[in-house]
């Protein structure tokens, strides 16, 4: 049975332009996965791909990755994507490879939704996120792989999501929309120096993963595009997100527990503009796969530190709402300034939470400003 789900949002959007940047953290966490140089380099053109924006290159991508997987060059292989528009269907990655997008390279998803492959629902969801049953497989995906790098010279991965958004608006979807990039049951992943845009659904979704570094990425989608979350670490450990610029139609970064726990999360040096809710930590969002979920399985949220966050035109600074039988603990807010566009400030909303607040404006809820010792908060950095 699937337990309650707990989520941490770092900003949810108004239907306005949002800009968010994460500056270099005081102590970088990106060293958990070192960047590697590959001894072998191959090009997608070696497999007959044509970058004219019209030719479908699904088969060349699959042939290239099949070669990497089965020849197993010592030190791994770099798959080079030269400048051009490379139209393709969904494809999977393999271990010990680098997907390298040159400047001017665009990997563009086909809009042929009828032939889009399906995948089983994630075990912690029990069903598709939007609809019962299976889900459309993510555009680029990897399952049970390790030592994978997606990088380049700020090339673009374009999901061409408008056809999917329209299906969602028209309620004509048959299954849950595909993510732009998903790693499942994988480890030692680096995603850097790439632009992700127009995802059909969530953009970057590591789930059941460990040791994942996401840095120097840009994630873009129209302000009215539905559910185009930026980066959604899900049921994963040792995830580092640095120097990201995210402007989408939904959450910027949403940390998902899988119904288990969220522990030892640090958010530092974030700027926001035109945001509905700056920070949200929610214990029960009332979202369960069916009526058979385990009502007695409570998530744990402990040790969340949010420091050096600045925002303007923030409608509501935030809400931290735990569960009565499983309160949130050791929540630290330090130097968090979230300003409204008007003189009217919406208050923080808190319940079933303990922690501390230092230098927070507007002043947060009493649960974070009472007699609880702030020592752990001031010593968190």
TrEMBL record:
GO MF annotations in UniProt: polygalacturonase activity
Keyword Heme in record: no
Superkingdom of the source species: Eukaryota
Signal sequence segment: 1-23
UniProt-listed PANTHER family: PECTIN LYASE-LIKE SUPERFAMILY PROTEIN, PECTIN LYASE-RELATED
Family: Belongs to the glycosyl hydrolase 28 family.
Protein name: Pectate lyase superfamily protein domain-containing protein
Organism name: Ensete ventricosum (Abyssinian banana)
């Amino acid at each position: 049975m699937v337990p309650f789900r707990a989520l941490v949002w770092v900003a949810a959007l108004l239907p306005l332009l949002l800009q968010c940047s994460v500056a270099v953290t005081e102590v970088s966490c990106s060293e958990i996965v070192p960047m590697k140089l590959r001894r072998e380099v191959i090009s997608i053109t070696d497999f007959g791909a044509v970058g004219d924006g019209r030719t479908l290159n699904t088969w060349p991508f699959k042939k290239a990755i099949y070669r990497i997987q089965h020849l197993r060059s010592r030190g791994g292989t770099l798959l080079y994507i030269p400048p051009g528009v490379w139209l393709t269907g969904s494809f999977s990655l393999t271990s010990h490879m680098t997907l390298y997008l040159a400047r001017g390279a665009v990997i563009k998803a086909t809009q042929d939704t009828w032939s889009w492959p399906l995948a089983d629902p994630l075990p912690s969801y029990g069903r598709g996120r939007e609809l019962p049953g299976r889900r459309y497989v993510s555009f680029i995906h990897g399952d049970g792989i390790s030592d994978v790098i997606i990088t380049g010279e700020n090339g673009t991965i374009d999901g061409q999501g408008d056809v999917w958004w329209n299906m969602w608006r028209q309620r004509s979807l048959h299954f849950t929309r595909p993510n732009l990039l998903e790693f499942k049951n994988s480890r030692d992943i680096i995603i850097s120096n790439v632009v992700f845009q127009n995802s059909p659904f969530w953009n970057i979704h590591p789930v059941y993963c460990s040791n994942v570094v996401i840095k120097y990425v840009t994630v873009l989608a129209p302000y009215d595009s539905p559910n185009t979350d930026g980066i959604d670490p899900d049921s994963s450990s040792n995830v580092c997100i640095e120097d990201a610029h995210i402007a989408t139609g939904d959450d910027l970064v949403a940390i998902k527990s899988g119904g288990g726990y969220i522990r030892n999360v640090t958010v530092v040096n974030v700027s926001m503009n035109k945001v509905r809710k700056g920070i949200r930590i929610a214990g029960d969002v009332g979202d369960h796969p069916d009526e058979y979920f385990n009502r007695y399985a409570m998530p744990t949220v402990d040790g969340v530190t949010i420091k050096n966050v600045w925002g303007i035109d923030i409608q509501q600074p935030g809400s931290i709402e735990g569960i009565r039988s499983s309160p949130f603990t050791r929540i630290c807010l330090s130097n968090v300034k979230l300003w409204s566009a008007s003189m009217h400030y919406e208050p923080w909303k808190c319940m079933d939470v303990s922690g501390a607040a230092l230098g927070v404006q507007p002043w947060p809820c009493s649960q974070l400003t009472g007699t609880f010792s702030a020592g752990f908060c001031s010593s968190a950095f």
